[in-house]
Design goal:
With 546 residues, this protein is mainly α. It contains 24 helices and no strands. The protein starts with a helix and ends with a helix.
Length: 546
């Protein structure tokens, strides 16, 4: 890397810090910090979600997994997009109508404060770990791209920038820096992609030189086989319905219609974008087959294929994606601490000023925890394996108590929710660490244990008053008859109904294709892809008609 490239990176980091810090003056009350005053439009929401979700975890971690294991890891992204469309149409508008800031806040409305506290505390650490994974990926990329090998230098450098501007400007800073990061990141990917493909001779070069099975989208065997795709789909639905970083952006939308349009648009945008980092990872397998760490795949391409000046610009785009994701999730952790722990249990009479002080101190504390945890990520097998380990244990039990039972079954009790969540997570931890099960069975079994325990305990602890409260809450949140601020919703249009039918048909074809793949029936991958495309078409039609 030449001096010009270092200058470009330094100017970018300084400018990003300056821009994010400028929004300190926009924060007048807690809602400005937490949800940007609930003013986001569909495109701004979509760009914010897209940048926050296409992090260096994808550009470095997932592309590195493609380098090592093949193209099938793309389903980690694509199933997440399927889930994003589903959540934007059918789940998050419910939460938006309740004008909540966090998922634990909904859990208190639905159950009681104990559930809110338990989930709030556990998810502070879970999200802090996720930010550490993203930070680790950013550091790995920065080391390879710049030649500056000090792990601690990059950990503290990147973390300090994002902690300070998130602490000052909250969600407003995150929205504006995420949108800038989106432009920089896409510019970098669009420069790197054609160069990497040209270097290996395009698609024919990939098919001729990659190991057998590396270009199989849906496989019967291997680490990321058809069963893992199903597990990814469940995890994706949980992520798209309950991830605090994502939901905090969605709750910043003007109304539920904006939520639907923004989330669906983001899902549609990310789907083709996934090829921009998966295929370069495969190209690196051909060009540099002996890299010591798979995460070095894309950074190695950047260093070796880009000229002076362009290298600095593309590196800035990659770092922008890391900072955007770090900021979004730091803000999420801080919101959980200030809203669900401090404001609810430690100081229930806290003024707006006290809440703002609390959330800024929480941002600082979450940043310190992120820095400390980043040093543990390599011991868990790298960014992708570490992330999948945590979510396979903790995420599905929360999904079970919040969505299927929380939204759809009024007789679910707080005792059932707590017992189901704890037993499901414990079962996942025992299987993963005690018996070394893979991610797919851990995900499915932890969710299944929670799903079985919850109704048994709930029926043993049934209370009429709690059931009536749950009924009233679900009526308030119902999307069938109410719009934002409890105004009557319009009747679904012909396009909306058509979109729903196409979406349902696409989902059925997608699942049938996966089962066919498991039975080794030819052309199953084509069936899966057709189903996914129909699903996205239906989701787009329904969102447009919203």
């Amino acid at each position: 890397m030449a001096i010009l490239d270092y200058v470009i990176i330094a100017v970018f980091l300084g400018g990003f810090f300056w821009l994010g810090s400028r929004f300190y003056r926009w924060i007048g009350n807690p809602d400005d910090f937490f949800v940007a005053g609930r003013q986001l439009t569909p495109f701004i929401l979509a760009a914010t979600l897209t940048t926050a979700n296409i992090s260096l975890f994808s550009l470095v971690g997932v592309s590195g997994t493609a380098y090592r294991s093949g193209i099938s890891i793309i389903w980690l992204t694509w199933t997440g997009n399927i889930a994003l469309v589903f959540s934007g149409l059918f789940v998050i508008p419910y939460f938006r109508r309740l004008r909540i800031r966090t998922v634990p806040e909904f859990l208190e409305m639905r159950y009681h404060g104990g559930v809110r506290l338990l989930v709030g505390v556990l998810w502070v650490f879970r999200l802090a770990f996720w930010t550490a994974v993203v930070l680790y990926a950013g550091v790995a990329a920065a080391q390879q791209l710049t030649g500056i090998q000090s792990f601690s230098f990059w950990v503290f450098g990147l973390a300090s920038i994002v902690i300070i501007y998130t602490m000052l400007g909250g969600m407003w800073s995150l929205v504006l820096t995420n949108n800038l990061g989106f432009l920089l990141m896409m510019s970098g990917l669009l420069i790197l992609f054609p160069l990497a493909m040209a270097a290996v001779g395009g698609w024919p070069g990939l098919t001729a030189h990659l190991p057998p099975g590396h270009l199989d989208l849906v496989t019967v065997t291997g680490k990321y086989n058809w069963k893992t795709v199903i597990a990814f789909l469940f995890l994706g639905i949980q992520w798209a319905t309950l991830d605090q970083g994502l939901l905090q952006a969605a709750f910043s939308a003007r109304d539920p219609r904006v939520v639907s349009k923004g989330m669906v648009l983001s899902g549609l945008m990310i789907t083709p974008f996934a090829l921009l980092w998966i295929l370069p990872g495969l190209a690196a397998r051909i060009l540099y087959p002996t890299l010591p760490k798979p995460e070095m795949a894309v950074p190695t391409l950047v260093v070796n294929l880009l000229p002076v000046g362009v290298l600095g610009c593309v590196t800035a785009g990659l770092l922008a994606s890391a900072l955007s994701t770090l900021g979004s999730n730091l803000g999420a952790v801080a919101t959980l601490v200030a809203n669900d722990i401090y404001g609810r249990f430690l100081n229930r009479q806290a003024s707006s000023r006290q809440l703002l002080v609390a959330v800024r101190l929480a941002t600082l504390s979450a940043g310190a925890l992120m820095i400390a945890t980043a040093y543990l990520v390599p011991r868990l097998g790298g960014a992708v394996d570490a992330y999948l380990t945590i979510i396979s244990i903790m995420d599905m039990p929360l999904f079970v108590i919040a969505i299927p039972y929380g939204l759809l079954w009024e007789k679910m009790t707080s005792e059932g929710a707590i017992t189901g969540y704890v037993t499901g997570s414990l079962a996942g931890a025992i299987l993963r660490f005690g018996f070394h099960f893979d991610v797919a069975p851990v995900t499915l079994i932890s969710g299944a244990v929670a799903a079985l325990v919850c109704p048994v305990v709930s029926l043993m602890t049934q209370k009429a008053a709690a059931t009536a409260r749950a009924h009233d809450l679900l009526v308030r949140a119902s999307a069938s008859g109410m719009d934002d601020d409890l105004q009557p919703a319009s009747t679904p249009s012909v396009w909306s109904r058509l979109g729903s039918w196409i979406l349902g048909l696409g989902a059925a074809i997608f699942l049938v294709g996966l089962v066919r793949a498991g039975l080794s029936i030819p052309k199953s991958t084509v069936v899966v892809l057709v189903g996914m495309l129909l699903y996205f078409l239906g989701g787009g039609l329904r969102a447009k008609a919203a």
